[in-house]
Amino acid sequence: MGWIEENMKFTNVRKILSQAISLGMVVSLALMMWKGLTCITGSQSPVVVVLSGSMEPGFQRGDILFLYINKNPIRTGQIVVFNDGRDIPIVHRVIEVHEHEDTKEVDILTKGDANEDDDRMLYASNHDWLQQKYIMGRAVGFLPYVGWFTIIMSEKPILKYILVGGLGLLVLTSKE
Amino acid sequence: MHSFWYRLNGLLTFSVTILAIMCAIASLSDNLNTPSPSAEIQVMNINWFQKQPQGNDEVSLTMNISADLQSLFTWNTKQLFIFVAAEYETPKNSLNQVSLWDAIIPAKEHAKFWIHTSNKYRFVDQGNYLRGKEFNLTLHWHVMPKTGKMFADKIVLTGYSFPEEYR
């Protein structure tokens, strides 16, 4: 009877390994899709969630924006996502562009649609203008409401732990 | 195979896929629309034109803006964001674009309008090159959809110029 028990132990180990590999494949596939999207759109974060109400009524909190960046110069009216050293990037519209004759560098001023004032106060360390290098992408498309999941996850981290813990429990106790 | 969780999983996956397909089709349907917008801007008055203490030119002007943008609206349009920008060239900058006025048009009925307004945003140059300079006024519109791809276009109106002297 001893070797039957040993065989059953092997089958259990194999089952666990097979589940672990399936999980690994799902995670790798998700990572590949994300990285692929980063390559295609040219942006470090091709999908962003709108976090503030400064672009209302066009973009509400919880909408997601699809970003795309190419070598085309930034022009007024474009909705850009920029980060000049802050915690979270900002999604606002470009209202002024000055392209220098000599360097072809561009000075940019942005403003949220729903804001009274432009963003000069927000720019880092007394920069009067934003440079193209701080622009992470231009918004080219959007989906409403889908980003609420991310906002809830980041604002109530306990939910994240519950979700991951729950999923882990589900994997361990499932029969196949 | 028929437990509650499997059914719920199947249902959720199916509905999310269908929703995504519907959003994509809604967005694609915007391409079927062929818009024919028109606009006219008149500079009624240059209110004042001064050089600021820091050395930059600033101008305040009053404009009559009239436009018919009704053909840009489709069933998938949430709103239209329009703005008027001045475009000009200086010895220092090969291109300057300064937004003077903007508005949000929430519905087709409001897309045919006429407005008499001074510039909402300050028109300040990088430098003092505006005297006697010619500039274009462009009316841009950004179509923000209910879901999907955003697109934008503009009408360029030429023939405006700043006064030769400060006033």
TrEMBL record, chain A:
Q: Does the keyword Membrane apply?
A: yes
Q: Where in the cell is it found?
A: Endomembrane system; Membrane
- State the Pfam families in the record: Peptidase_S24 (PF00717)
Q: How does it sit in the membrane?
A: Single-pass type II membrane protein
Which segments constitute the Peptidase S24/S26A/S26B/S26C domain? Answer: 37-96
According to the UniProt record, one GO cellular component term is:
signal peptidase complex
Q: Which UniProt keywords apply?
A: Hydrolase, Membrane, Protease, Signal-anchor, Transmembrane, Transmembrane helix
Q: Where mainly found? A: membrane
Species of provenance: Hibiscus syriacus
**EC primary class:** hydrolase
Q: Name one GO biological process term.
A: signal peptide processing
Catalytic activity annotated for this protein?
A: Cleavage of hydrophobic, N-terminal signal or leader sequences from secreted and periplasmic proteins
Name used for this protein in its record = signal peptidase I
NCBIfam families linked to this entry:
sigpep_I_arch
UniProtKB/TrEMBL annotation, chain B:
* Keyword Glycosyltransferase attached: no
For whether the record's keyword set contains Endoplasmic reticulum, the answer is: yes
Q: What is its main location?
A: endoplasmic reticulum
Q: GO CC annotations?
A: signal peptidase complex
Q: Which UniProt keywords apply?
A: Endoplasmic reticulum, Membrane, Signal, Signal-anchor, Transmembrane, Transmembrane helix
Looking up InterPro entries in the UniProt record yields: SPC3
Compartment annotation: Endoplasmic reticulum membrane
Superkingdom field: Eukaryota
Describe its membrane topology.
Single-pass type II membrane protein
Q: Which GO terms describe its biological process?
A: protein targeting to ER; signal peptide processing
Q: List the signal peptide residues.
A: 1-20
Q: Could you say which protein family the record assigns here?
A: Belongs to the SPCS3 family.
Q: Tell me, what does this protein do in biology?
A: Essential component of the signal peptidase complex (SPC) which catalyzes the cleavage of N-terminal signal sequences from nascent proteins as they are translocated into the lumen of the endoplasmic reticulum. Essential for the SPC catalytic activity, possibly by stabilizing and positioning the active center of the complex close to the lumenal surface.
Mind telling me what this protein is named?
Signal peptidase complex subunit 3
